[in-house]
């Protein structure tokens, strides 16, 4: 795929744009060392992890959340 201009992206359907964002995010997530977190982000992630360990059943698995989001129109 070549470079996309903003106009090209806006011509994509919403579903195609969402897929594009997912593909971009996956490419970023594949190199986690390139992502620098601020101290506040680290604190928040630690808090969320502590909350999860305190009550793992309280949250929802990613696949459930993703399907809930995709189900909205």
Automatic annotation (TrEMBL):
Write down what this protein is called: Addiction module protein
**NCBIfam families this protein is in?**
stabl_TIGR02574
Q: Which organism is it from?
A: Geoalkalibacter halelectricus
Query: What InterPro entries does this protein's entry cite?
Result: CHP02574_addiction_mod (IPR013406)
* Pfam families, per database record: Unstab_antitox (PF09720)
């Amino acid at each position: 795929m070549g470079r996309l201009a903003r106009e090209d992206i806006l011509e994509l359907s919403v579903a195609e744009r969402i897929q594009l964002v997912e593909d971009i995010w996956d490419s970023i997530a594949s190199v986690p060392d390139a992502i620098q977190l601020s101290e506040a982000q680290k604190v928040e992630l630690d808090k969320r992890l502590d909350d999860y360990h305190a009550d793992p059943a309280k949250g929802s698995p990613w696949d459930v959340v993703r399907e809930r989001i995709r189900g909205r129109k």
